[in-house]
Structure prediction request, 601 residues.
Amino acid sequence: MLVEEIMNTDVVTLSPTASIREALHLLQKHRIRHIPIVDDDNYVVGIVSDRDVRDASPSILDKDSDQHVLDNEIQTIMSHPVVTVHPLDFVEEIARIFYDEEFASVPVVQNHKLVGIVTEKDMLYTLIQLTGTHVQGSQIEVKVPHVPGMIPKVTSIFGERNTNIISVLVYPYQNDPNYKILVFRIQTMNPNPIVQDLRAAGYELMWPNNIPEPKI
Amino acid sequence: MTCKSSFVYSDALLDYHFHSDHPFNQKRVLLTKELLESTEQLHQDEMITPRKATEQELALFHDHAYIDAVKNASNGTLPIEKGLEFGLGTEDTPIFPGMHDAASYLVGGTLTAVESVLEDKTEHSLHLGGGLHHGFKRKASGFCIYNDGAVAIKYIRKQYDLKVLYVDTDAHHGDGVQWAFYDDPNVCTFSIHETGRYLFPGTGNVNERGIKEGHGYSFNLPIDAFTQDESFLHIFEFAFKEIVASFKPDVIVTQNGADAHVLDPLTHLCATMKIYERIPQLAHELAHQYCNGRWIALGGGGYDIWRVVPRAWGQVWNVMKTGSPVKGDIPVDWINKWQPETKVTLPSYWHDDESIIPNIPRKSEITDKNEKVLMNLLKYTRSST
Prediction:
């Protein structure tokens, strides 16, 4: 999956000479947490977060505070240089940036110009799509040896039962490198025939599993 | 206490039949009716015949394109690819001849029940052929073709302009009905179900609370797999009472799926007949307290059609009619008539023997987890009362 498929192209920006007050206003108005700072050519020269702006604002507990600090230019508090990504980067790759750098958003830049932004929230939404939990389905977890050809063998059982697969995830099995857990979400309300077929074919199921008697 | 109630029944309801190996089997309705007749709880003058819903009525909720697809599927003229687009011809909802008529009767039965109550012919009405809560606007799913509950509630809104509380105790999330009224503040939906972590459909999280005007009118109580009677009843009763007190409905529609029972082959909940005695009692009591008695009860899921469903659904009628569940023996003539048709042993009593209750090692954790979900569910409702 490419960044351009999940990025938000409607980006709220400010120029470096805008005031901190304007930034505060935009953050509240649009309920966002990051504003890329761009120059006249739409080059990203910095970024501010809601925390940067709050740090630069007077305390709400201080009634007689000097509100003039909000007139300072945003470039005095912005972070730079900015880590950016490209629309053709993989979502999986930029997940690494979010994790390692502890960012909550990254601007997307093409030919040096700002074209979009990806936030932590977009990443989590994408993750939900990958798990398939947003659509109707039943979940089955199969423990398999970590050798070639296991997925086709298991999925052929779904195919024989004419059941659509919504999503497939492959997890490690605890710390044992010799096994993998295959997690399927399948489009049926009655997974029992498939569960029986899988058991008959000798697969160990992690779910459904520890169901007490007299359940199947 | 005896309440005037009607029981919607006709053999036409049994035509909703996918194929002999399919878990959804409407013989349940016949088994329940005969059990009640043998118990002398149900008499001819209490039964009313379902009408067939018109296409205009189906279109109160469903798309015309979808209704046309079902009609074409009925006479074998729907191309396979086209069918799959509408969820027709899948393992869950296979195509069968006459499916449009059969499904229209189920919807019509629910409309008949609605009319019985809202035209003041009876205080309560029961339609066990209905409760097909997974049907979507333009998609069949989870054994459901048309969503009779959604159509009927649209019908109540249009014809009578009443505030409707829909209570769904099926072990699966009542998703089709929830999404149908997700933005409607005049229809409150409340579903208790096994968490969607493993079980179909997967939705029904506590944070699905409705959108726009309807925010705060959608309630979901997803409970852990292996939940047993005490925890189920405690949180259900608590939530039901809070919700009905804050919403103040004009009429209550219940979906009485009977698949949370430990013997049900499709779900992982571990309830017994105790919950099926108490659930209708609560609905009955609250309908009298808040809605002048107006209560329409529907069927739903339930896949142990011999040992569980006839008793569970029978108790809905017993409570509806007399205010309390029947206790004691199952009539011998009913057992003798049906035992030859099944390999499982038919139950001898209305209640369950304790020996069927499994030992659940994580019981206290499950109870604790369910309590937390309850508090989360009611965190806005309670602060406002």
About this structure: Residues 5-383 of chain B form a domain with the Arginase; Chain A fold (CATH 3.40.800.20). Chain B is about 40% helix and 10% strand. Chain B has one domain: 5-383. The mean pLDDT of chain B is 96.
